[in-house]
Design goal:
The protein has 187 residues and is an alpha+beta fold. The protein has 7 helices and 4 strands; from the N terminus they run H-E-H-E-H-E-E-H-H-H-H. Strands 2-1-3-4 form a 4-stranded mixed beta sheet. The protein starts with a helix and ends in a 6-residue tail after the last helix.
Length: 187
Protein backbone atom coordinates (compact mmCIF):
# COMPACT_ATOMS: atom_id res chain seq x y z
CA UNK A 1 0.00 0.00 0.00
CA UNK A 2 2.88 2.38 0.78
CA UNK A 3 4.36 1.73 -2.65
CA UNK A 4 1.19 3.00 -4.33
CA UNK A 5 1.41 6.24 -2.35
CA UNK A 6 5.11 6.52 -3.15
CA UNK A 7 4.47 6.12 -6.89
CA UNK A 8 1.67 8.71 -6.78
CA UNK A 9 4.00 11.06 -4.89
CA UNK A 10 6.76 10.60 -7.51
CA UNK A 11 4.34 11.30 -10.35
CA UNK A 12 3.08 14.39 -8.51
CA UNK A 13 6.66 15.68 -8.05
CA UNK A 14 7.57 15.05 -11.67
CA UNK A 15 4.51 16.82 -13.12
CA UNK A 16 6.13 20.30 -13.41
CA UNK A 17 9.07 18.81 -15.31
CA UNK A 18 6.83 16.82 -17.62
CA UNK A 19 4.63 19.87 -18.24
CA UNK A 20 7.65 22.01 -19.08
CA UNK A 21 8.88 19.41 -21.55
CA UNK A 22 5.48 19.36 -23.26
CA UNK A 23 5.19 23.15 -23.61
CA UNK A 24 5.50 24.33 -27.19
CA UNK A 25 8.38 26.73 -27.94
CA UNK A 26 6.06 28.89 -30.06
CA UNK A 27 5.63 31.45 -27.28
CA UNK A 28 9.38 31.97 -27.07
CA UNK A 29 11.40 34.46 -29.10
CA UNK A 30 12.26 32.83 -32.44
CA UNK A 31 15.92 31.89 -32.64
CA UNK A 32 16.84 33.67 -35.86
CA UNK A 33 20.13 32.83 -37.50
CA UNK A 34 21.22 35.24 -40.21
CA UNK A 35 23.73 34.05 -42.78
CA UNK A 36 25.28 36.33 -45.37
CA UNK A 37 26.42 34.34 -48.38
CA UNK A 38 27.42 34.61 -52.03
CA UNK A 39 26.56 32.36 -54.92
CA UNK A 40 29.14 29.75 -55.95
CA UNK A 41 30.54 29.55 -52.42
CA UNK A 42 31.16 25.98 -51.22
CA UNK A 43 31.50 27.01 -47.55
CA UNK A 44 28.19 28.89 -47.84
CA UNK A 45 26.50 25.80 -49.22
CA UNK A 46 27.95 23.59 -46.47
CA UNK A 47 26.81 26.08 -43.83
CA UNK A 48 23.31 26.28 -45.32
CA UNK A 49 23.02 22.47 -45.29
CA UNK A 50 24.26 22.31 -41.68
CA UNK A 51 21.80 24.99 -40.57
CA UNK A 52 18.91 23.20 -42.30
CA UNK A 53 19.88 20.06 -40.39
CA UNK A 54 19.87 22.03 -37.12
CA UNK A 55 16.50 23.52 -38.05
CA UNK A 56 15.00 20.02 -38.32
CA UNK A 57 16.14 19.35 -34.75
CA UNK A 58 14.89 22.67 -33.33
CA UNK A 59 11.45 24.04 -34.21
CA UNK A 60 12.38 27.39 -32.67
CA UNK A 61 15.22 27.91 -35.16
CA UNK A 62 14.60 30.25 -38.08
CA UNK A 63 17.34 30.52 -40.72
CA UNK A 64 17.46 33.68 -42.81
CA UNK A 65 19.88 33.56 -45.71
CA UNK A 66 20.89 36.85 -47.32
CA UNK A 67 22.88 37.09 -50.53
CA UNK A 68 25.37 39.93 -49.99
CA UNK A 69 25.17 40.91 -53.66
CA UNK A 70 21.43 41.51 -53.25
CA UNK A 71 21.60 43.30 -49.89
CA UNK A 72 25.06 44.78 -49.59
CA UNK A 73 23.84 47.71 -47.47
CA UNK A 74 22.58 45.43 -44.67
CA UNK A 75 25.74 43.31 -44.91
CA UNK A 76 27.95 46.39 -44.50
CA UNK A 77 25.81 47.78 -41.68
CA UNK A 78 26.05 44.49 -39.74
CA UNK A 79 29.82 44.36 -40.29
CA UNK A 80 30.20 47.98 -39.14
CA UNK A 81 28.05 47.39 -36.06
CA UNK A 82 30.06 44.32 -35.05
CA UNK A 83 33.35 45.98 -36.08
CA UNK A 84 34.14 43.17 -38.54
CA UNK A 85 37.02 44.05 -40.86
CA UNK A 86 37.16 40.73 -42.71
CA UNK A 87 35.48 40.40 -46.10
CA UNK A 88 35.31 36.61 -45.82
CA UNK A 89 32.05 34.79 -46.18
CA UNK A 90 29.88 33.21 -45.04
CA UNK A 91 29.09 35.53 -42.16
CA UNK A 92 26.68 34.05 -39.62
CA UNK A 93 25.05 35.97 -36.76
CA UNK A 94 23.27 34.23 -33.90
CA UNK A 95 21.82 36.77 -31.48
CA UNK A 96 24.78 39.14 -31.31
CA UNK A 97 27.54 36.55 -31.79
CA UNK A 98 29.08 36.23 -35.23
CA UNK A 99 31.07 33.60 -37.11
CA UNK A 100 33.16 34.15 -40.21
CA UNK A 101 33.69 31.26 -42.64
CA UNK A 102 32.52 27.72 -41.99
CA UNK A 103 34.24 24.48 -41.00
CA UNK A 104 33.75 21.69 -38.45
CA UNK A 105 35.26 23.76 -35.60
CA UNK A 106 32.98 26.69 -36.36
CA UNK A 107 29.96 24.39 -36.59
CA UNK A 108 30.76 23.06 -33.12
CA UNK A 109 31.03 26.60 -31.74
CA UNK A 110 27.76 27.53 -33.46
CA UNK A 111 26.08 24.52 -31.92
CA UNK A 112 27.15 25.67 -28.44
CA UNK A 113 25.92 29.22 -29.11
CA UNK A 114 22.62 27.90 -30.50
CA UNK A 115 22.22 25.86 -27.32
CA UNK A 116 22.88 28.88 -25.11
CA UNK A 117 20.46 31.11 -26.98
CA UNK A 118 17.87 28.33 -27.23
CA UNK A 119 17.85 28.03 -23.44
CA UNK A 120 16.88 31.70 -23.11
CA UNK A 121 13.23 32.71 -23.06
CA UNK A 122 14.08 36.07 -24.57
CA UNK A 123 17.11 37.67 -26.14
CA UNK A 124 17.86 40.33 -28.69
CA UNK A 125 18.66 39.51 -32.29
CA UNK A 126 21.18 42.04 -33.55
CA UNK A 127 20.39 41.79 -37.27
CA UNK A 128 16.65 42.12 -36.61
CA UNK A 129 17.44 45.17 -34.47
CA UNK A 130 19.43 46.71 -37.32
CA UNK A 131 16.67 45.94 -39.86
CA UNK A 132 14.01 47.43 -37.56
CA UNK A 133 16.25 50.44 -36.83
CA UNK A 134 16.01 49.91 -33.08
CA UNK A 135 18.59 50.68 -30.37
CA UNK A 136 21.62 48.50 -31.06
CA UNK A 137 23.37 49.25 -27.75
CA UNK A 138 20.46 47.97 -25.67
CA UNK A 139 20.41 44.84 -27.83
CA UNK A 140 24.11 44.21 -27.20
CA UNK A 141 23.60 44.92 -23.49
CA UNK A 142 20.70 42.46 -23.28
CA UNK A 143 22.81 39.67 -24.79
CA UNK A 144 26.10 40.31 -22.98
CA UNK A 145 25.47 37.71 -20.25
CA UNK A 146 24.63 34.92 -22.70
CA UNK A 147 28.20 34.62 -23.93
CA UNK A 148 29.44 34.44 -20.32
CA UNK A 149 27.16 31.62 -19.22
CA UNK A 150 28.67 28.23 -18.51
CA UNK A 151 27.68 25.34 -20.78
CA UNK A 152 25.49 23.73 -18.12
CA UNK A 153 22.34 25.73 -17.57
CA UNK A 154 19.90 25.70 -14.69
CA UNK A 155 17.56 23.51 -16.75
CA UNK A 156 20.32 20.95 -17.25
CA UNK A 157 21.15 20.99 -13.55
CA UNK A 158 17.49 20.39 -12.65
CA UNK A 159 17.30 17.54 -15.14
CA UNK A 160 20.33 15.91 -13.53
CA UNK A 161 18.92 16.43 -10.02
CA UNK A 162 15.60 14.95 -11.13
CA UNK A 163 17.33 11.94 -12.69
CA UNK A 164 19.34 11.33 -9.51
CA UNK A 165 16.18 11.69 -7.43
CA UNK A 166 14.33 9.11 -9.53
CA UNK A 167 17.34 6.78 -9.42
CA UNK A 168 17.41 6.96 -5.61
CA UNK A 169 13.65 6.34 -5.41
CA UNK A 170 13.87 3.32 -7.73
CA UNK A 171 16.78 1.85 -5.76
CA UNK A 172 14.89 2.45 -2.50
CA UNK A 173 11.79 0.70 -3.85
CA UNK A 174 13.87 -2.21 -5.15
CA UNK A 175 15.61 -2.63 -1.78
CA UNK A 176 12.26 -2.42 0.02
CA UNK A 177 10.75 -5.13 -2.22
CA UNK A 178 13.78 -7.39 -1.80
CA UNK A 179 13.77 -6.97 1.97
CA UNK A 180 10.01 -7.53 2.16
CA UNK A 181 10.24 -10.75 0.14
CA UNK A 182 13.10 -12.01 2.27
CA UNK A 183 10.83 -11.76 5.36
CA UNK A 184 13.12 -9.36 7.21
CA UNK A 185 10.15 -7.18 8.17
CA UNK A 186 8.26 -10.04 9.87
CA UNK A 187 8.52 -10.17 13.63
Amino acid sequence: MKIKYLIIFIIFLSFPFIAKALVNNSSLTPLKVYTFIEEDCSECESLTNWLENQKEKNSRLEVITININENEQLYNEVKDTLNIKSKSIPLTIIGSIYFINYNSNISQMMKEVLTKYNEQDEFCNLVSTIIDKEDINSCLEQNKDISKQPNMTNTSIWQIILAIFFFIIIITIAIYIILKKSNIFKK
